[in-house]
Amino acid sequence: MKKMRTTTRSLHEKLRQVVKVIETSKKMLKNRRRLPMDEMSTEQQISGRRLGNPRKAAVVPILGPFPVREFAFRVFLCAKRVRFVEEEERDDEESEEGKEDEENEEEESEEEEESEDDIHDKDKLTTLRSEFAHLSTDDFDLLMRKGVFPYEYVDCAEKLEDTRLPPCESFYSSLTSNTVFENDYAHAINVWQRFAILTLGEYSDLYLKTDVLLLVDVFENFCDSCINSYGLDPAYYYTLLGFTWDAMLKHMHIKFELLTDIDIVMFIERGIRGGLSQCSHRYAQANNKYMQSYDPSEPSSYLMYFDVNNLYGWAMCQPLPYTDFRWVDDTSNFEVNVIAPDSPKGYVLEVDLEYPRHLHDAHADLSFCPTRDKPLGKRQDKLLATLYDKKRYVIHYRNLQQCTRHGLRIITIHRVLESTQSPWLHDYIELNTRFRVAAKNDFEKNLYKLMNNAVFSKTIENVRNHFDVKLVTKWDGRYGAEAMIAKPNFHSRSVFSSNLIAIEMRKLEVKFNKPIYADMCILDISKVCLYEFHHEYMVPVYHDRYTASGNREYWAPGATRTDRDKSQTVTC
C-alpha cells in the first residue's frame, strides 16, 4: 500500500511538471517580437502583409521551427510516456487508470468533434472570409469572435489618434458597471499586435468592419437554416414569434375556429393563469456527509433541485382544442372523471370546489387550484396557491380530474365549454426537437428551442394590449397632438423634441384573432405534470420528512441516501 502511495505521488509530480511545461509554452506563445522587413525571409514577409499594407512589420512567434500543434502533440506524447512508465509500477490501480484513459479518450474525441464543428462554422463565414481572403488561418481565427472596444473612453476624435491600446480600465462600461474580462483584453492586445495596428482609429475600423460582417454572416446563416427547415424566409417577418407561427400553420395545415362569442372569450380569459412560483420554506441548510461543513451531531439533511425538461413542450404535445366550441346544456349530470385524456372532445369547466380541512396539512406546500389575488399589503395581483374553497373556478378537465383524485370535492358545476381537440401541435414540436438533436452548433440548437417556445408565446398574445402609434409634428389642427390627446382612447405619449411627439392610442376595435383557448389549456395541462411529480412521487418517497421551496427545490431533513436516490430516478 505504501508503494502504491509513493507511485501515485511520483506520477502526480511528473504530470504536474508536464502541465508546467505546457503552461510555460502558452506564455511563450503570447510573447511576440517584431522583425524589420529586411531581416525577414520571403515567406515571413508574405505572411506579414496585414490589411493590404506590406510594409508593416510582421509578428513572429519565438518558438522553434515546428508548428504549435506539433509542439502540443509532442508534449502530449511526453505526458503519455510518463504515465506508461508509472503504469509498470502499479498493481491495484490499473482498473482506475483504465477508466481515466477512457475518459481522456472521450474528451479527446469530443475535442476533435468540436474542432470539426469549428471548421464547419468557418465555412459559413463567407462574407467575412471574402473581405479578409489574404489573411492566414491563425489571423482569421482572431476575427471569428466578438471584439471589444472602449466605447466610453473614445469621447472625442483626438483619442482615435492614440498609438497604444488603452489600459483595461478604459474599457469600463456604465451599462454593465464593469470593465472587460482579462481574456477579452488579452484578445484585444493580440489583435493589435498581430495586425500591426498603429492607432486606435485603425483598431476602430477593424473592429467595426468585423462586427458588421460577422452580423451579416450570422443573419445569412440564420435565414439559410430557416429556409432549409421550414421553406420560409425570416427576412419577411418582424419577429420570430410571427415566423414560427406561420411555419407551424404551414407544416400542420390546421384551421382554428376564431371565437365570436364574447362570453366564451371572457370565460377562457378567466382561466388563463401562468406558472406558479413560491417559497414554502424560507430558509433551509443542508447537512450531510458529502459536505465539507458536515456536522455529525446534527441530523442529516439534503437539498435537491428538480427541473422538468421541456415542460411546455410536453404540454403542447397533448390534445388541445381547436374548433366546434359550444356550451354543454345539461351540466347537472356531467361526469368529468370518465373523460379520457386523449378524448376527441375536450372540456373547460366553471366549478365550485371544496378544499376539505383534513387535506390542508398535506397540501400546505403545494395546494391545488392557484388563484389570482392580491397578497396582504400588496396592490398587484399574484398567483397564490391557497387552501380556500374555490368559487366559479375555470379549470381544464384534466386538472379537475387530478384535483378530485387528491380529495377536493366538486360542489357545483356552473358551466361546461365543449370543443373538439387533438394533438395538433405534436408533429411541429417533434419536428423542431429532431432539428435540435441534429444541430451541429449552439446557434442552431437555441434556434429550434426558441421555435417551440415562441409558438406558445404566440398563443398567449393579448390583443387587448395592442396600440396604434401616431407620430405628430404639430400641436394644433385636426390631426395635431392636442386633438389626439383629447380623444377618449388616448393612452400615453413620448416627447422626442419640440416638433416631434409619439402618441399611443388604444384601438377602437379589438379583433380576437388568436387561439387563446390553446394557451389556457397548455398552462393548465403543464400544472398536471408539476402537481403529479410533487404529490405522486415526492410525497410518497419522503412522506412528511421534506419541505418544498417553490416547485422544484426540496429540503429533506433526516432523509436516507436510499430515499434520495429514489427521488432522483422519477420523471414527470
Automatic annotation (TrEMBL):
Name the record gives this protein: DNA-directed DNA polymerase
GO biological process, one term: DNA biosynthetic process
Region (Disordered): 87-122
Residue stretches spanning the membrane: none
InterPro entries: DNA/RNA_pol_sf (IPR043502)
Acidic residues composition bias: residue spans: 87-118
